[in-house]
Amino acid sequence: xxAKRKTVEPKNIKASSIDQKHGVSSAPDGLYxxxxxxxxxxxxxxxxxxxxxxxxxxxDFRRLHNxxxxxxxxxxxxxxxxxxxxxxxxxxxxxxxTVIGEWARDKLTRWCLLTGNGEPWVWDFGSAARxxxxxxxxxxxxxxxxxxxxxxxxxxxxxxxxxxxxxEIYDVLKAEGVADMPIGIDVCEPLFMFALQKLGLNVVDxxxxxxxxxxxxxxxxxxxxxxxxxxxxGVYQDIFEALKPGVRENEIVALATKRFYEMGSDCVExxxxxxxxxxxxxxxxxxxxxxxxxxxxxxDLIQTYMGYKTCYYRTFTVGSATPAQHDAYxxxxxxxxGAISMLKPGVSTEKVAKAxxxxxxxxxxxxxSAFGLNFCHGLGMGLHERPLISRLNSFKxxxxxxxxxxxAVETFCPAKDGVSAARIEEExxxxxxxxxxITLFPAQELPIANKY
Length: 452
Hints:
The chain contains ten helices and 16 strands.
């Protein structure tokens, strides 16, 4: 008779044993490690609805908050900095999970401080600080302060706001024991940096620490990026149906912008719309040009959903397409597929850069003048994160690709007619098995809108 198998009870973990605020990647087995990206590569990449529901797990925002803060702490611990002071809106949101909308993007009047020993401090615009105290319980209430350094000179520096803010920061650094260590800053007004230096602080570049933190996306971040890409898929269907002679570039921009906001976009940062003789060289904008029969037209959808970006190009022709237009598209698609096939964990970025054409192949004299047309760039809260792969930089500074990176791959090819051009972009997630495309509007062949 077989021996009776002993039942093994699952191990219970007390909540008091889990340090969610100061987690590091070496957390003990069985404990929640906030720095663990929690990838689920055995399942399809998720693109759920926007609503929160009680019958399936979607995005866990508290887990997302904890992950981003833990990633920042780990990057800070691996540097020689005692603290990071950030004014970049993406870095502020990444560390503190606070945001007050697109209005703040160019004001440089909100900032966030994190030391290796403390919780995030946020200085925000007027009443926003009080709002955080009520609605952001993951931040200590006394760490949410009103701040103002003059709105880029609108308040004269002689008022002394820079010096007051610098003194507040210095007092925090001193209280948390890091005032004698370098402090890293991403971007700021020069007068703010000078005020910090007058107090004896060693101010250095902090942007690289933040990019180190942000390079590996968690399961929740990948889900949000995939949801943002799905919104772009839908907008391209609307564009495809609306693209006909007589419509103007700016009308397509209006259509796309309205549709994104209806879907729940935080911010439509830019929609490029380029058609006809404007296609080559690429002007990176839109006008009120009327679209005509036979035009080649391409678009870029740059928008944010819950803090996470899209960068999503597609090219169409209107009514019909010429051999020159088809040929340019095939070349652009070939470069795209060649680059994507190279994207695997452990591959060095210089090898991927070789898959892109030299500047002279697309009619430019230097790699600088051709930059941004055939390259890869990391995608997350920022439009340009790591990795950034191009012939301009990757041969000088090779970089190893890692599982969990998300980035956009872009190609451009001018047509032999001297007017048209093809522009394609795919967003990809780097899985253990290579790149998974998450931009799904068909792009293997040149789409012809409202074909005659």
